[in-house]
Amino acid sequence: MPDRRRGRVRDVATIRPFRALRPPRELVEAVAAPPYDVVDTAEAAALAAGNPDSFLHVTRPEIDLADADPHSEAAYAQARTALADAVAKGALVARGPAVLVYRQEMTIRLGERAVAASQTGVVGCVSTAEYRAGVIATHEFTRPDKEDDRTRHIDTLGAHDEPVMLMYRTDQPGAAQVGAVVAEVTAGEPEYAFEADGVRHTLWEVSDAGQVTRLVEGFERIDTLYVADGHHRCAAAARVAERRAEPEAAYFPATVLAADQLTVLAYHRVVADRAGLDTPDFLAALEGAFAVEPVDQAPDPARHQLGVYTDGRWYLLTARPGVVDEQDPIARLDVAVLTERVLAPVLGITDQRTDRRITFVGGIRGTDELVRRVDQLPAGVAFALPATTTADVMDVADLGEVMPPKSTWFEPKLRSGLFVHPFA
Predict the structure, then answer these.
(1) Could you give the dihedral angle defined by the CA atoms of residues 128, 134, 138 and 140, in that order, rounded to the nearest 10 degrees?
(2) What are the b/e assignments for 12-31, b being 16+ CB within 10 Å?
(3) Cα 94–chain centre separation
(4) Confidence band for 294, pLDDT divided at 50, 70 and 90
(5) Angle of helix 144-157 relative to helix 231-243, nearest 10 degrees?
(6) pLDDT per residue over 28-70, tens digit each?
(7) Whole-angstrom Cα distance, residue 136 to residue 90?
(8) Where are the beta strands (DSSP E) in 247-393?
(9) Which residue, 6, 9, 177, 273, shows the most beta carbons closer than 10 Å to its own?
(10) Model's pTM, two decimal places?
(11) Would you kindly state where each structural domain of the chain is located, as residue ranges?
């Protein structure tokens, strides 16, 4: 397998302490908010109603404007005003350079099945130069409009207001050292411990200088960090660094986790119609690549299986021998199998990014949401996929390639407002 990591000037990851704006302990529950991209304007307004300390006033500033256009100059300026107001009234307080440890715990319910998710990562600043050099590896294309929006937002704010989520392979030489320090830190008293939206959030400041040094040195023995969540924020941070003279603008905040800490859920698809095929003809068109089996309830598909819901009934598709190229890290992804064997040849969907017939449903919503949506469509069809693994993601990134769109859904999401990285 080709390795994108060869030939780089610097082959280790840098994690550094950073100055942050953080809420005082007594206000952390009021300040902390969902990330900007998991709530729309109406949802953000409802969540922040009656709570002037909510960090949504910074990340979703349009909620405080009469013209709720999130991409207007007024909205970007309002974000800067909201951040300044939070500092002025003490909802966010400047703290000296530090490294943090952040743990999240939740129970994810997928139909009748409950999944316990717990992830603990190190919070520090990472380098935009290393992002550009590929030491921080990506696996998705960014959309220009979203990248432009985050660039304007961060640049106007004069701060990174939300962290990205990065991961690393556990077989790296420094991984055990990082894990040992995290275990020491989390045995102590946390700075924050609260619950929000069904997730338990706990944050520790690494105050011992020796522990900070060991964390930094541990990451210096890890050659690649992989973007799990936050591709647009990474790209925007790199663009902002080119615009700003402040040294801090060359770094951006990240929560960095061992890959085995992350919980990846599937990302399902709903297609508005069966491209003119009735149900028998549609199922017959699938039988060349799959064994098609009617089932009584929503299946929990394993690798190289798909759940299909249409015309009021579920089916389980199992790829026939030889259909999946196991030697190709992209072709063996089940989202790629769906694309190449169903969406393109049967339903005529060749570009999932632009085709208006297809929508995406995060695995956290469960298969009941697929049924609900398809039952509102005269000839709709849903596809329930197995989850992509973190190993799949990193293998694709190492090739310098990209995953098919909407391949991963990570839970839980990082909470915003716990640590803001100002440039000055």
Answers:
(1) 100
(2) bbbbebbbbbbbeeebbebb
(3) 27
(4) very high
(5) 50
(6) 999 999 999 989 999 999 999 999 999 999 999 999 999 879 9
(7) 34
(8) 251-258, 263-265, 267-271, 290-295, 305-310, 313-319, 358-362, 381-384
(9) 177
(10) 0.90
(11) 18-34+95-263+410-422, 267-386
